[in-house]
Amino acid sequence: MKSILPPRFIVERDPDRCIQCQVCVNQCGWEVHYYDPIDDVVRSYDERCVACHRCVVFCPTHALTIRERPLDYRRNANWTPEVIEDIYKQSETGGIVLTGMGNDKPYRNYWDHLVLNASQVTNPSIDPLREPMELRTYLGAKSDRVEVDPDTLELRTQLAPQVPIEVPVMFSAMSYGAISLNVHEALARAAAEAGTLFNTGEGGLARHLYEYKDHAIAQVASGRFGVHPDYLEMARVLEIKIGQGAKPGIGGHLPGEKVSEPVAATRMIPVGTDALSPAPQHDIYSIEDLSQLIYALKEATRYTKPVSVKIAAVHNVAAIASGIVRAGADIVAIDGLRGSTGAAPKIIRDNVGIPIALAIAAVDSRLREEGIRNRASIVAAGGFRNSGDVLKAIALGADAVYIGTAALVALGCHVCQMCYTGRCSWGIATTRPDLSKRVNPEIGAQRLVNLLRGWSLEIKEMLGGMGINALESVRGNRLHLRAVGLTEAEMQVLGVKPAGM
Amino acid sequence: MKDLQRYQNRYGDDKVIEACGLFGILDTAGRRFSGAEVIQAMALMHDRGNGLGGGFAAYGIYPEHADCYALHVMTMHEQAREQVEAFLRCHFDVVKGEPVPTRPTPDIVDPPDLHRYFVHPRRDEASEVSEEDYVVGRVMEINSGIDGAFVFSSGKNMGVFKGVGYPEQIAEYFCLESYEGYMWTGHNRFPTNTPGWWGGAHPFNILDWTVVHNGEISSYGINVRFLEMYGYRCTMQTDTEVLAYALDLLIRRHHLPVGIAAKVLAPPLWGEIEAMEPEERRLHETLRQVYGSLLMNGPFTIIAAHEGEMIALGDRIRLRPLVAGVKGDRLYVSSEESAIWLVCPDVEATWIPVGGQPVVGRLGETPTPPETASAYVMPMGASLDMVKVEA
Amino acid sequence: MWAEVDTVVEIDATGLHYRELNERIHAAVAEGARTLRLVNVRGQRYIGTGLRVPVRIEIHGVPGNDLAAFMEGPRIVVYGNTQDGCGNTMNSGEIVIHGHAGDITGLSMRGGRIFIRGNVGYRVGIHMKEYGDQRPAIVVGGTAQHFLGEYMAGGVLVLLGLDTPRGEHLARFIGTGMHGGVMYFRGTLRPEQLGKEVGIVDLEESDREVLGKLVGEFCRHFGYDAAEILSGDFIKLLPLSRRPYGRLYAY
User: Fold this and answer.
1) Are strands B330-334 and B323-327 parallel, antiparallel or unpaired?
2) C149 contacts C130 by C-beta, under 8 angstroms
3) Would you call A16 helix, strand, or coil by DSSP?
4) What's the mean pLDDT when you consider all of chain B?
5) pLDDT per residue over B262-288, tens digit each?
6) Rounded to whole angstroms, how far apart are CA atoms A309 and B351?
7) Contacts of C123 in chain A (CB under 8 A)
8) What 3-state class would DSSP assign to A436?
9) Are B290 and B186 in contact (CB under 8 A)?
10) What is the pTM of this model?
11) In which element (H, E) is residue C237 found?
């Protein structure tokens, strides 16, 4: 069937600058650029361009410009170009419209409506460059009290397993298969170097990366890919994935063409078969079943590591989180409306779930009201863009955050949202060897470490400004937040006052 | 009107989300036996709950007052109890009023005052309101009108005993081993959004109907709105309450047989309906067309009981567990099979019912396992604990 | 592979919570026990979980949910019925059940074998998968309830239909989403019982070999006559595609 989809981008090649070197031809995963031997020039198929900018960045003479193609459909506030073009796609295929990355719709971004506090006059701000500033966080269930022998002063309390992170930012679950092995390795190395954790995602962990096990969160998801006793024993933290923010309530498929030999070996499935992640875990249909799996994992690892449960932020997130904590989880990870993905139905990504800021506030408040906040750490995820977002999340009540998109952007991702195609020109969301070799794990790790270092420095600056020298003093401390331009109801959920009050 | 939500759903969630473990025993010959077995079975399934709710229903326990409605009432303060007693004197002949016997139990903290009253309704004989509806109305009045008071059991010759704690602790608190009944159900609760309120524990009761429930009904919102059209007020905001009212509507008011009512709550899939013979197909089509809003969509298993009958039912794609067993006149249903073997080591047969097919036990009808292969039966033939080393 | 019957360590599970029971099992194994006999087992969960030693465990009674979850290595013989989740994500080892087994038996199992003398519940063998020489197998003496082998991605499921009325398997939604592995049924099936992702194919000589081996083992465990069982007609189910959802999406 002939496609009536118009091209979205124009590839402009400045003939004065182009030296016909064909770097663009070689770099493009989309086969946009081609060499025409008859005319001896490089040309482009505009309709294939996704604006990933690989060619733009790598063109030695800066001859390329990518612009959004002006296509002035008749003005209509309802029938936008996106709506129209999605219908074209579906009428041509009869399928579900897929997308990658996080929700790109203009829902209110609460981080942009919250402001942080700073000290002036009545208490001193602290200079983090010269004075101590502590960001260390321990993930895991805490006790309600500490018991000490009054005579010997010997500690009697034995805490549940705790895992320290030196910066309250971890790498979110991204599975090998959805991203390349080199990216997995870059994340693992960076986590080790920065003193934080990376999450394997649900596709298992390649054996040679077990070297980074002390920094690994091993995910156990509905597909149980690559989940075997070595994998469980390896990890520092185990995470049961119930849902993710980009696609709450549904499963996923790693298409067979992405299941290469090394992916197959890690996932422990035959090469070329679809890797199906069912929507539910079929041993969890209810909260007591979740408890059963939590304790199955604890039994399997003899109670040596915290178990996290990751859910998408949805309507009843506070009640659900309370149940998860009571079910025995040591960490509750919550992924919000803007959580990212390698592939999700666009209709789900853009319409299901609630913003992470509201979810953090609701969960933290509920767990406190029920007196069980000590029993679990809260990890928040879903669209964290910078250290300001991170610190505001912590002030709302998160113990730490997961970043996914920000980490991939650090590796070169230009957020073209085509991760599901496996043709990522940046070598990130692909398992094609010719593309994935573009991410050098060592250089990638360095970029990620640099990012975390930059954010840490910024967080320390902000903390210092508040007159605080330990992150725990701002955790759940909503007095350091004020709202700008939010409704009464929103401020009530967030538990913050309007700026000026 | 009193706001029950303040206790039951203090955070105003869409509904109270919870899950659980269930057990039920019926002696179809009507022989009465102590609560020890159901307590033991519930204690075995301890890990299915989280200590925020346990409860039991017992039938045939008040033979000396068999013709009286036995109202079990919890009150949060003295004034509430005085108001309840004044109200009861006004609307009922109170044959006897006494504290529900309890014993100090270390894990049971902050219990409400618990009294029971054996009463006859004092209603105008000429009234068009049936005696049952009269009792329901008065119970609703107390529950929605008297602050700090809640009637949690209102049937004849039966009683509900429930509270905040694990079921075995609740049983100890209520001295349940000292009661004798011919039918017992038990519940172990795992609520996710309440620090626990005594009234919120299962079984849920109205008249002699009790329901214990495991699972979460995703269709709850429309189930409630459908029932509201028939005059039910869903004050408890639980799936369980909705299930109880749905059974009341279908069986007591619409006179549908239990098997048909089960097909409303857990209907066959359209594909299965289309494969039926014309008459049967028309029946099921009509049921879904009329009662589609009562489809309980989502994982559930319930044990519903009323005088002389116990019904266990799972959802149509069996998302929650249910096992049944028989031994002589006894019918057992449970979330876990081990609990049946624990209390009945010589059970004759156990089976896993197919989703949507009710297991029904009635006084006077010897229970038998189903014969079809899919609702299979696997008699063990010998004691489980036979020591047998393979060759 | 598993120890010959040596000194048997017996543990009476009466009244023990699963954590106590499993601690005792781990302690006994750490002290060198290779054959354990657990008696009066009633609902204790996770027996065999976290054990990575090829021990032999006899269970007398009804073990609890998630028996042998994530197990690697042990051989468990159950003189009784098992509940839900038996063999959950099991990696290797063997479970022999002399009674029936509950729902999701063998969920996401990736190696080892489960033999069940009787029938099994819903969603058995769901999402079993195989890789390399790890090819899990479940052999059921009787029949199964619905959603058998859903999402099955590898391994072998055998239903022998013994003591099944008229040899009729009544399960529906068999192999929905199946995209790997194979199922064999002794007895009858109607096409409408199958998920749209599976098809009936003829048995080949290699199938007879697989069946001969598994049925032979089954019969050694439970004392049936293998030749007699194998003489029955078998139906073989294979997935129609390894990519069942390849056409689900637009571009």
Assistant:
1) antiparallel
2) no
3) coil
4) 89
5) 999 999 999 889 999 999 999 999 999
6) 33
7) 282
8) helix
9) no
10) 0.93
11) strand C234-239
Q: Count how many pairs of residues, chain B against chain C, have C-beta atoms within 8 Å.
A: 108
Q: What is the helix, strand, coil percentage profile of chain B, to 5?
A: 30, 30, 40
Six-digit token pair at B274? 């289309």
Distance CA A288, CA A301 (A): 20
- Provide CB contacts within 8 A for A191, sequence distance 6+: A170, A171, A197, A198, A212, A215, A216
Determine which helix (DSSP H) or strand (DSSP E) holds B7, and give its type and residue range: helix B5-8
Query: On the CB side of A62, how many CA atoms lie within 13 Å of its CA?
Result: 0
| Contact criterion met (CB below 8 Å) for B190 and A326 | yes
Q: Judging by DSSP bridges, how do beta strands B359-362 and B309-314 pair with one another? A: antiparallel
**For chain B, which residues lie within 8 Å of any Cβ of chain A, measuring from their own Cβ?**
11, 13-14, 17-21, 47-50, 52, 190-193, 195, 214-216, 299, 319-320
Q: Where is A162: in which H helix or E strand?
A: none
User: What tokens were used for C117?
Assistant: 């003398």
The pLDDT of B31-37, averaged and rounded, is 97
Give Cβ neighbours of residue C27 (< 8 Å, ≥ 6 apart): none
pLDDT of C4 over the 60 cut = no
- Please confirm whether the linkage preceding A81 is cis (ω < 30° from 0): no
Strands (DSSP E) along A29-153, which ranges? 33-36, 41-44, 64-68, 98-99, 114-116, 137-139
| The 3-state secondary structure of A288-334, one letter per residue | HHHHHHHHHHHHHCCCCCCEEEEEECCCCHHHHHHHHHHCCCCEEEE
Cα–Cα distance measured from residue A461 to residue A469, given in angstroms and rounded to the nearest whole number:
10
Query: Distance (Å, rounded) from C-alpha A500 to C-alpha A161?
Result: 42
Helix (H, G, I), strand (E, B) or coil at A433: helix
**Which chain B residue has the Cα nearest residue C80?**
B384
Token pair of A341, please? 């993905």
Residue B369 main-chain phi, psi, to 5 deg: -70, 155
Judge whether C123 is closer than 8 Å to chain A, CB to CB: yes
User: A313 is written with which tokens?
Assistant: 């932020």
Give the residue ranges of chain A where pLDDT is below 50: none
Give the pLDDT of residue B379.
Answer: 41
